[in-house]
Write a structure and sequence with these properties.
Strand 8 and strand 9 form a beta hairpin. The strands form two sheets. Strands 1, 2, 5, 8 and 9 form a five-stranded mixed sheet that branches. A four-stranded antiparallel sheet has the order 4-3-6-7. 6% of the residues lie in helices and 45% in strands. The protein has a single domain, classed as Transthyretin/hydroxyisourate hydrolase domain (Immunoglobulin-like, Sandwich), CATH 2.60.40. It is mainly beta and 108 residues long. Catalyzes the hydrolysis of 5-hydroxyisourate (HIU) to 2-oxo-4-hydroxy-4-carboxy-5-ureidoimidazoline (OHCU). One of its GO terms (biological process) is purine nucleobase metabolic process. InterPro entries: Hydroxyisourate_hydrolase, Thyroxine_BS, Transthyretin/HIU_hydrolase, Transthyretin/HIU_hydrolase_d, Transthyretin/HIU_hydrolase_sf. This is 5-hydroxyisourate hydrolase. Pfam families: Transthyretin.
């Protein structure tokens, strides 16, 4: 099981955002994994089973998603930098999305 998961919700449509391309990078810019959100807006397995402590980056291709649902968004991509501090902890990084705003937090 991956140590990292994500979930994207489209607040403007009130439903999960399916088909959002997501790429996981190391802090130095190396690509670790890529996936797209499923029908429930989730990527349940993203990256390796274990992430070493350090900085990482998730990049969500929101322009591709907005085009697929016939919307125009202000942010063509959302980049979330985060830090793994506990080697054994699970990291869930949700994204709440709309065409002109987004928010994120550390989930459980």
């Amino acid at each position: 099981m991956s140590q990292l998961t994500t979930h994207v919700l489209d607040a403007s449509l009130g439903r999960p955002a399916s088909g959002v391309p997501v790429v996981l990078y190391t802090g130095s810019g190396e690509v670790l994994a890529g996936a797209a959100t499923n029908a429930d807006g989730r990527v349940p397995e993203l990256g390796p089973d274990q992430l070493a402590p350090g900085e990482y980056r998730l990049v969500f291709d929101t322009s591709a998603y907005f085009a697929s649902v016939g919307q125009t968004g202000f942010y063509p991509r959302v980049t979330i930098d985060f830090e793994v501090t506990e080697a054994e902890a699970h990291y869930h990084v949700p994204l709440l999305l709309s065409p002109f705003a987004y928010s994120t937090y550390r989930g459980s």
